[in-house]
Amino acid sequence: MSRTIFINDRLVPEAEARISVFDHGLLYGDGVFEGLRSYAGRVFRLDAHLDRLWASARAICLEIPLAKEALAKAVIDTLAANGLEDGYIRLIVTRGAGTLGLDPNRCSNPQVIIIADTISLYPQEFYDQGLRIVTAATQRIQPAALSPRIKSLNYLNNIMAKLEGLRAGCVEALMLNHKGEVAECTGDNVFVVRSGRLLTPPPDAGILEGITRNAVMELAHAAGIDCREATLTRHDLYTADECFLTGTAAEVIPVVDIDGRAIGSGVPGPVTSRLKDDFHVLVRQ
Ligand code: PXG
After folding, report:
1. Average pLDDT value for residue range 190-199
2. 223 φ/ψ angles, rounded to the nearest 5 degrees
3. Which of 1, 146, 172, 271 is deepest in the core (most CB within 10 A)?
4. Residue 42 phi/psi, 5° resolution?
5. What's the average model confidence in pLDDT over 82-102?
6. How many CA atoms lie within 13 A of 218 on its CB side?
7. Domain 4-117, CATH among 3.30.450.40, 3.90.1150.10, 3.30.470.10, 3.40.1440.10
8. CB of 188 closer than 6 A to ligand 1?
């Protein structure tokens, strides 16, 4: 099925959606992106995703050539053009075509691309039985080198860790920061439950501050579950009562085994199940 893609200022058939081989998004990963979802025709936390896109762009001195309102409308229009109610949306802004040198000032037109597609979900059994994950040897990139808070087109750090996970037969991998503390997974944030309290690493652990993460923290608060940001080590994960991951694609997914250690009783726990159910309600509200 051919899709309809938004590129720059209009919707075009997939075959006509093209960017230059000189685009620094391709040459250097110089650009930013967002992954969003729509449920029953409504985009979940569109404003938060746009705010994060603008923050990422600002951090790399990239001016998005559209107003936020115009981009919000383009997202809705792209979903509609593809007849999608429950969909996955990829928003991309590249630096634009330049020279073969690094200099971003020699790039002229940032390219704005919106792709709307169906989402390929993890099998239901992963949600029912929980994931097994391993710790990657690849550390999360040090904030002083490149802030993980920037959702940039350069995802090789995460891909290197993902490869390690896949080679170990796992769909996700845990990443530690340069201090050896728990950061996040390759495309998901991490939470643990200990004595009924929810804990998750703070943004300065070198993580992407996930929109699903923030929604789950709000849900915990509303449910009267104590939730706080805390520096976590692998030991804290191994000895937790429960562990789960959050992300736009995965939503809320239990983790039952890390590096060969069963977490808690080795099956998804009650706090995880509660937040997973609450999240499903929230996205369709
Ligand atoms: N950490 C990283 C490094 C991410 O890339 C998250 C956490 C979770 O953030 P959100 O805002 O989504 O709760 C992400 C987001 C995919 C996919 O197809 C991955 C993400 C988002 C959408 C799709 O694997 N990662």
Report:
1. 98
2. -90, 0
3. 172
4. -115, 135
5. 97
6. 9
7. 3.30.470.10
8. yes
The length of the chain is 285
Residue 44 has pLDDT above 90, yes or no: yes
Which is the CATH superfamily of the domain at 124-283?
Answer: D-amino Acid Aminotransferase, subunit A, domain 2 (3.20.10.10)
Nearest-CA residue for atom 10 of ligand 1: 210
C-alpha span between 242 and 195 (Å, rounded):
10
State the distance from the centre of ligand 1 to the C-alpha of 187, rounded, in angstroms.
4
Q: Which residues pair with 242 in a beta bridge?
A: 193
Instruction: Categorize the per-residue pLDDT at 45 as very low, low, confident or very high, splitting at 50, 70 and 90.
Output: very high
Percent over 70 (pLDDT), the chain: 100
Does ligand 1 have an atom closer than 6 angstroms to the CB of 232?
no
Q: What is the mean pLDDT of the chain?
A: 97
The domain limits of the chain are: 4-117, 124-283
For the chain, the helix, strand and coil percentages under 3-state DSSP, each to the nearest 5: 30, 30, 40
Question: Could you tell me the distance, in angstroms and rounded to a whole number, from the CA of residue 36 to the centre of ligand 1?
Answer: 9
Contact 97/79 with Cβ under 8 angstroms?
no
pLDDT digit string, tens, across residues 125-158 = 999 999 999 999 999 999 999 999 999 999 999 9
Buried-state track 55-69, b at ≥16 Cβ within 10 A, e below 16: ebbeebebebeeeee
Q: Is 276 a catalytic residue?
A: no
Which atom from ligand 1 is nearest to the alpha carbon of 213? 13
| Whether pTM exceeds 0.90 | yes
According to the model, what pLDDT value does residue 279 have? Answer: 98
